[in-house]
């Protein structure tokens, strides 16, 4: 219920963001022209607002459901045994699949609407030069992840990952220059506290003993992840009329390239000796499929909503996962989970109620 | 900082509450006349607002500090060994001491200002008939407390006691008819979640296994405690110009009477065989002194602020206690404590920011 309200409110901002971004990048588009662009994107007519609202709702729900099922697949695969495949090859396949799906969507669009300036695949150096940056940031973050485990254990890392919420909020404010009200900031701090509380268990206090290098790495990783997210939003929203599938195609092409580098750096021996697909199972294939679809949903949320909606969506997904796990895996929900979920729910309400007028 | 802001905002309501209460009780006082009454109370002149604000600040800080030191004395006394004295005799002495202190304050006031209608001790049946009710409610709650331990252990009871926060808010709304904004309600739910989170430990999940009778008793106790608090506020604010020390005197006289009954019911044998003061130590005396002063501070907060300020004050006191205990008793603060404290801080901010305009 409350979640729906957020999306509702956020919609009113779509135009402002677009115009903010235009002015940020020093383009000459006026608010009126970006409104026209959005109207075109929405299929034209007076129902732009409603079309935007619907699209935002659909992509946000899709992201929430895909993220929940992702976590459930991970639990399932852990129950089935240890990962036997190379994670880097799986990541490469995820990028490849996303690329293929974007091309598939584009061929359908070309057939129906013909090739236009906004949906043609060819690009300029000026447009494409920023697309490798998010992929490079994620690669760097993933490499750091191997080193942080020298300082923090895996459950501790799960807790520190909640710093992403704060870093996304701060970078969203600084880079996209979009304002959150004080009440929304309060909600954002609560989202971070609530998610962490929901994950508390008897070993969580160990994370407080993290050494200084561990904290620094955790903060750097949170900043890298937040920056990659916010930068992706900036790239995708820079030209609102550009077809999202073209933008995705170029993002994922660079994702494939950087993940190919990761295979060489991290798993060259394993792949050379045991083959590219060693250790793949049915569940691995499901996980790759899920990751690809979630990745596309994230891009869509960036295009039609924003990073804040993305963070709320994935946080709510985390709670949904736990509830579904009660039925699937006989999980027991802790008191901390109930408290954390309540705090997250209040946070969602505050994000909506605290909307700047 | 943020806490100061709340008190600031709440002050604007003092007049409304008084007039609400008058209309609630069917009195013919107008808003103007209760304003005059408050001005008289504040020493007259144009600085009523500021005087009220100062007094509210002082009593709230006093309550916070006294409540923190109360909890510290309890920890100290537990370290020193088990309670050896009869709790009912100590409660009786607390009421007697409060009575004596109220009389002492009154004799000074009579000397300085002379005896007036508002500060005379003599009362009417109509005024005094409601004063036994809070004492009776507390007595009933304290008796129930002995039975709830059949269903819940002591740490579980500490967690369930946070239901008081919600019950106070709900009864405050229903009985005093004073409105909280939606943001303030969100803050109140967060206060309850934050306090509970701060108290989480590895055994907290046991509270989820509480049986239905245990839950019912916990909820009844929360309602009794909330009702006693809200009813006390209603009594004290019913006649704003009445001297608080006279009101306290009558409250505490009935407190003494009901606690005398409790001694007979619960500790008659122990007192008859071992004497009234058996097992008293220096720390017992300190605890009695502290309870008496905290009790008076609670009355003052009811008079010059309200139950909501009281709940926030005692919740912040709980967090202060934990921080002070780090230095005094080498306590370790848990991650849950940090998360809970952050949620409580945000809640205090929301109570202030969500002020109805």
Report what the structure shows:
Two copies of one chain form a homodimer. With 357 residues, chain A is mainly alpha-helical. The first copy, chain A, has one domain. Helices cover 77% and strands 0% of the residues of chain A. The first copy, chain A, is built from 15 helices and no strands. Chain A has helices spanning 2-11, 14-24, 31-41, 48-80, 87-113, 125-128, 132-148, 154-160, 163-175, 182-199, 212-238, 244-274, 282-304, 307-329, 335-353. In chain A, helix 5 (87-113) runs antiparallel to helix 12.
Describe the structure concisely for a colleague.
With 357 residues, chain A is an all-alpha fold.
Q: Which value, in Å, is the CA radius of gyration of chain A?
A: 21 Å
Q: Can you count the helices of chain A? A: 15
Number of domains of chain A: 1
This entry's quaternary arrangement is: homodimer
Distance between the termini of chain A: 21 Å
Instruction: Tally the beta strands of chain A.
Output: 0
Question: Roughly what is the average pLDDT of chain A, rounded to an integer?
Answer: 83
Give the SSE string of chain A: HHHHHHHHHHHHHHH
Strand content of chain A: under 5%
**Low confidence ranges of chain A:** 1-45
Give the overall silhouette of chain A. globular
Largest sheet of chain A: none
| Relative helix content of chain A | over 70%
Greatest interface by residues involved: A-B, 29 and 29 residues
């Amino acid at each position: 219920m409350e979640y729906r309200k957020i999306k509702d409110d956020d919609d009113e901002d779509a135009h402002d963001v677009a115009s903010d971004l235009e002015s940020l990048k020093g383009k000459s588009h006026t608010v009126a022209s970006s409104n026209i662009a959005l109207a075109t994107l929405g299929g034209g007519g007076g129902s732009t607002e409603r079309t935007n609202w619907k699209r935002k709702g659909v992509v946000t729900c899709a992201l929430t459901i895909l993220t929940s099922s992702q976590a459930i697949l991970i639990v399932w695969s852990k129950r089935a045994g240890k990962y036997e495949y190379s994670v880097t090859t799986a990541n490469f396949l995820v990028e490849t699949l996303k690329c293929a799906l974007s091309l598939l969507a584009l061929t359908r669009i070309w057939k129906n609407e013909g090739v236009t300036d906004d949906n043609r695949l060819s690009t300029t150096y000026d447009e494409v030069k920023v697309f490798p940056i998010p992929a490079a940031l994620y690669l760097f973050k993933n490499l750091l992840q191997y080193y942080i485990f020298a300082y923090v254990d895996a459950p501790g890392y799960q807790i520190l990952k909640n710093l992403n919420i704060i870093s996304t909020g701060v970078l969203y404010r600084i880079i996209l220059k979009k304002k959150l009200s004080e009440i929304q900031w309060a909600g954002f701090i609560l989202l971070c506290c609530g998610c962490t509380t929901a994950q508390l268990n008897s070993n969580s206090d160990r994370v407080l003993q993290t050494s200084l290098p561990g904290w620094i790495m955790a903060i750097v990783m949170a900043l890298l992840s937040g920056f990659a997210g916010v930068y992706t939003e900036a790239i995708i929203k820079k030209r609102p009329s550009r077809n999202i599938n073209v933008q995705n195609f170029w993002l994922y092409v660079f994702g494939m390239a950087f993940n190919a580098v990761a295979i060489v750096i991290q798993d060259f021996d394993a792949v050379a000796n045991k083959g590219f697909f060693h250790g793949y199972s049915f569940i691995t294939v499901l996980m790759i499929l899920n990751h690809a679809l979630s990745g596309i949903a994230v891009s869509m949320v960036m295009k039609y909503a924003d990073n804040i909606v993305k963070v709320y969506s994935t946080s709510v997904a985390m709670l949904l996962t736990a509830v579904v796990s009660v039925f699937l895996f006989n999980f027991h929900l802790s008191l901390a989970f109930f408290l954390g979920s309540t705090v997250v729910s209040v946070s969602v309400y505050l994000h909506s109620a605290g909307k700047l007028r």
